[in-house]
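Protein in question reproduced for absentees:

***
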Amino acid sequence: MSDEQQTQDSHLNEQPEQVAGDDLNARVLDLEEQLAAAKDQSLRVAAELQNVRRRAEQDVEKAHKFALEKFSGDLLPVVDTLERALEMSSPDDEAIKPMREGIELTLKMFHDTLKRYNLEPVDPHGEPFNPEHHQAMAMEESVHLEPGSVVKVFQKGYLLNGRLLRPAMVVVSKAPEQTPPSIDEKA
């Protein structure tokens, strides 16, 4: 064989190796891209799974915390009635003293039970009106309290684990109206 033929043959032999090498490099790059995409998808799936797990734990925690919400709400009128019974009865009346003591003990048991289950009363007498925890039933002029303060509580509100179960029904103070001077005072 001549030197030219050997050179041509060697060039022919190099080209398939070079073409195969380019094809191999392209294939490697493609596989690396697919691997990066698979890793990214795997991380996203793992993050989503962690989010689902965290949300499920939060839902279970809320269910435990607020499972008694409806039941507690149904018991509050009983507490209100016992408190009203004590307000309406005279502590000095000897005829009803045993009954009054029974009501006081029953009410104390109710309050202890409510406290044990994180049910806290909202009794805002004298505090500033808070629309998030109070429901204004009326307004009343007051010279003793600043305008916007709670003058009277018709019904206590309650919080269950810090969340409002029932707003307090209140009377809110307002500034006394200034009466215009009468004709006699002007003269």
